[in-house]
Every structure is written in structure tokens, then in C-alpha cells.
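Re: that chain you flagged

S.,

Sorry for the slow reply, it's been a week of failed gels. I finally had a moment to sit down with the sequence you sent. For the record, here it is as I used it:
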Amino acid sequence: MEKLALEQMGFIIGDWIPEEASIAVAVDGRYVYYKSGKRELKICIGDEVLPGSVADRTYTERKRIEMLVEESVLGAAYFGIGYPVQAAGKSGVLVIILPPDYMIRQKQPVRFLTGKVDEAWKPIPVEQISHIESSQKKTWFYADEEAYCSIHTLKYLKDRLPDWFLPIHRSYIVNISYIMEISRDFSSNYLLTMKDGSVLPVSQNYTSSVRERLGF
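Prediction finished late last night. Pasting the C-alpha cells below so you have them in one place:
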């Protein structure tokens, strides 16, 4: 692959992966591109793909590979995600290199959200957040009667919030502790009145799970 194309690939991928990640591309068993993030490994252009590495397994199995390499010949333990690719008709692999505890950290619930209000960013403990809303392609969360804009999507937050948060609609996640009342509208759909006065609809797709979680 041409150097310019590789650099463009690295730049584009870099917009979608964690800042700490490194990116490596190998073709025909040798590394042809390496972009270092915060996780520095001993990879140089022209180096052979070594046995036991994520790149090696991805080459061998020709499928997406996720694995932790504990005793790495590349200089440090790492968690890698490998993808088989084709480059100018040749077999290649693209590897995203992350810290060894990356998957553990991903599974831990978030303990605070940082939101923007006016021109300032503020970290807010999730215990103080009453609900989260997706509106006009932005995510907002509400705490102490203030609205904060978050960089995270509702989809991202859904799997990372503590279990006292409850999805009620494709556009809303609520903190159960802040629900003041459950009622019905004229169509017999459920409405949640929050302690800050917000009234949020429960969509039919979420009705069963809301009733099960709240026990009514």
C-alpha cells in the first residue's frame, strides 16, 4: 500500500478509536505502517509479524481476532483487535493495540459524566443525574435542574451506566431514584414524572422491561 494511503487510513481510524490506541498494518507478513498512541510497542516498518501476536493469529485465521497478549515479544503486554484486510491484492492485517486492562475498564460502569453548560465543562457524578435525553443529534443529561451537553451517544451510555439507570424510550434513560410518579396518558401509555418536573414517555417497546424493573 502506498504511504499516503496508509497515512490516510491511520488518520481516519484514529477518529474512531481511543486516543491511547496504536495502529499497525502488516502486508505479506511484514509491518508496513505503524502509528503510535499512548501504548508504545517495539514495531518498526519492515519488521516481520511475530508468532503469537494478534497480527499473526489474524493472518492465520483470516477473521477478526480479539486477544490479550500477556508476555509480548513486542515489548509490553497489550490487548489487540485484528482485522483481515486486502491491500493491492495482497493479504494484510490491521491491528488496533490497546492497554491490557482495556476490556476490564470498558465493562466498568461510568461514575461521572462530563457535560458542557454555557462555555464550561463540568464532571457530574451519575448519582446526581436524573435522566439523559437524545435530542436533535445531541445527548443531554440533567442534574440539579441544569441541562448539560455530553459528547457520548445514548447507545454508548446505555451499556455503561450503573444498573439503577433504566432505558424507557429510544430517546430517554432515567435514574430510577428520581422517578416521582408513574401514570398513564390518554392512550394508556405510561408516563414518568421526574422529581425535577419533567414528564417522560415510556415507549411500547420498553413497557414490559420498565414494569419488570419497577415491579408493577
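What I noticed first: The mean pLDDT is 85.

Talk soon,
D.
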